[in-house]
Amino acid sequence: MASIFEEIADAVVKAESEAKVRGLTQKALDEGHPVKKILEDGLVKGMNEIGERWKQGDAFIPEVLLSAEMMRAGIDVVKELIIRDGIKPLGKVVIGTVQGDVHSIGKSLVGMMLQSSGFEVQDLGVDVTVGKFVEVVKAQKPDLLALSALLTTTMPAMEDTIKAVKKEGLKIKTIIGGSPTSQVYATSIGADGYASDAVSAVDKVKELLDLPPEIRFL
Amino acid sequence: MGKCITRFISDADVKKMRTEAINILEEVGVKVSHEGAKQMLEKAGAKVDYQTDLVKIPGELSEECLRRLPGKVVLGGRQPDKDVVLEPGNERVYNRGMSGGEYYIDLQDGKYRKAVLSDVKDWAIATDGTKGIDICCMPYYYDPGLNVSVRDVHGFEILLENTTKPIELQPYGKKNIEYMIEMCLAEYGSKKEFKKRPRFMCMIGPVSPLHWHGNSVDMLLLAGQYGIPVEPDPMPIAGAGGPVTILGNTLLSLAEHLSAVVISELANPGAPVIFAPRPVAMNMATGQVIEASVEVAMISAIQTQVAREGFGWPTDMYAFVSDSPVTDGQSIIDRCFNATFCAFAGADILTGWGCLEASITLDIVQLAIDSEIADMTARALKGVEVNDDTLGLEAIRRVGAGTGNTFLTDPHTIKYFKTEYRKPQILTYARRKAWEAEGRKDLYERAKEKVKRLLSEHKPAPADAALVKEWREITERAEKEIVRMSTV
User: Fold this and answer.
1) What is the ipTM of this complex?
2) Which A positions 48-77 lie with beta carbon below 8 A of chain B?
3) At A153, is the secondary structure helix, strand, or coil?
């Protein structure tokens, strides 16, 4: 018979219902299992498995996102205990589409993928001014700032944002993405990284923050 | 003899999609983040929520605005012989390049790089001198010395000077369009003359699903005042910004375009609006977009049919499109499929000459290949006229059965052999020996030679020197007056 952890992982992969994941997570808690084990051997394991399937080409973005929602539902159940036990996310990321640009799909996708990979993500939305980025970065002190742009006209706002953040002397890594951007462009504006799609963005963020690729929670 | 048109869905299906598009605006509504437009829509009978910007447009209001659309759309060349005229039953199909493309395949060394200012001039000259392309567009060049927020105005100036063909671009803002209008008024002398055959049209889009931002509405309204044709470009990414199914995606783009028609016609009755959707699907394996799959071609075809038959809208469809990052077998397969579907669905304008990599990259060599594809498409669209002469009845009788005679010198052959068959520009019909004797050049080589020759030999008719000077002054003023979009 499958262990409760295997059942949780399976429920995250199959993504039938959030209620099921919540129920199983609660059951594991009631049985007295430690939160760290529920995360590592259950919720995160399921997420890793769907991620692995995605890498093999056997799962697709909507399925990965659904599983991520399942994992979040499970995490909700153990949220307070995560804080109590001092289990930390991999890092804190602030993400947004730069000033003048109102396109959100790619940015949101990257945000969701980061979140489901164990990062704490604050999504500032679209058309985020340079000032707003600076204000949030100063207040929240995230480890990484992720900027998105779809329009060639708004790409320079990425440069402006990165310059403004650096001017504040804040120790933070930066990454950019969006259809017209490239590694060449990222280098030219002083961004630390570039990713062409949501999944490679996760790998790149881990690389920039010196985290091993397979890691989920610290 | 009209255009040879293929239908993809039935009359009843077209009617249903028309009805549902109108229903979406009435039931779901459209978000319009523009104070003036919201007030205008409310006054006309729409239900407006000023907090959320949600506007619900009653069916009767949509119908009323549809009736206000002009029957004919004219886009002016420098001289009237280059004008583009879109009207129902048009027998010809027009062609244009892709506006956009940040990256460029260098003509000399074949290397991939950012598009630069000098590419805009080359592009204009090549468009001016290439057969079959009727509307000129601007590569998204990169020049660190220039104010990026007036790149469209700079580019427009270069196009005005270097092509006699009409122009299409994606303006960045209302102020930018004002400078372009000023340049045109210098040429036309009066708003009245300009309105008759405006020298350019603008692509101004909503953000899917169903949202108009203030900047876009500002531009729609200004263009309408001057009779500048606008091309709203609904681009719901199938499975992300829009429904994943072919028909669902088609329907949402129709509803989004209809919302542009309502805003434009309410503000400026008779304003020309062209349906110019840019269908794409999300690549569910990567989260990036697919622009040229066979399913996207099907969306384009059905969009064209419903726009034409259901609404009577002129259409500009994304035909010469590819996901391949280089000009290769795939880039040709992709664009042939998409161009053929759009053309036979009855599109008025076939767009995208030169584009690669889902509109990110331009290859000027591809222009020569697209010219060939467009010429073949136009030939096929002409179709056939059935009569005794085209059936060759007399000739078949004359030559007879097994007489040893042939049709080679028959009067029927002499009469038709030059006109029935199109003469290729860069395709080869040579067999190996002849092909080897000609230097073993493949399609890309032949196209490249053609473009190089064109750029060295073709001199577009020069624009009036005083006008060129005035355009320059206007651009310089724009450079100073339009503030860079983002400032630290």
Assistant:
1) 0.82
2) 54, 57, 60-62
3) coil
